[in-house]
């Protein structure tokens, strides 16, 4: 027999912390380029952190 389960309501999720997300506007082609650099299981946040770290490690003369 089918066993009824309680619905997931806000009351049932009191210990669940919602992560904070932001939206970064980008062209679809840019999103696809970024997506192509994701490594297995990597999140967009992980990728963006990695790219920023690599950028910040570059010599300032290489940026111009």
Structural class: mainly alpha
Q: Would you list the SSEs in sequence order as H and E? A: HH
- Provide the gyration radius in Å: 20 Å
Helix content: 25-40%
Count, helices: 2
**Mean of pLDDT:** 80
Strand content: under 5%
Major sheet summary line = none
Alpha-carbon distance between the termini? 69 Å
Q: Write down how many β-strands occur, each being a DSSP E stretch of 2 or more residues.
A: 0
The gross shape turns out to be elongated
Quick overview:
Helix content is 34%, strand content 0%. It has helices spanning 28-35, 44-57.
Descriptors:
64 residues, mainly alpha, single chain, 2 helices
Question: Would you give an account of this structure?
Answer:
The protein is an all-alpha fold and about 60 residues long. The chain is built from two helices and no strands. It has helices spanning about 30-35, 45-55. The radius of gyration is 20 Å and the shape is elongated. The mean pLDDT is about 80.
């Amino acid at each position: 027999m089918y066993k009824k389960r309680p619905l997931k309501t806000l009351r049932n999720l009191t210990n669940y912390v919602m992560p904070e997300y932001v939206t970064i506007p980008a062209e679809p082609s840019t999103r696809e380029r970024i997506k192509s650099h994701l490594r297995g299981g990597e999140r967009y946040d992980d990728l963006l952190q990695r790219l920023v770290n690599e950028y910040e490690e570059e010599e300032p003369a290489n940026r111009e």
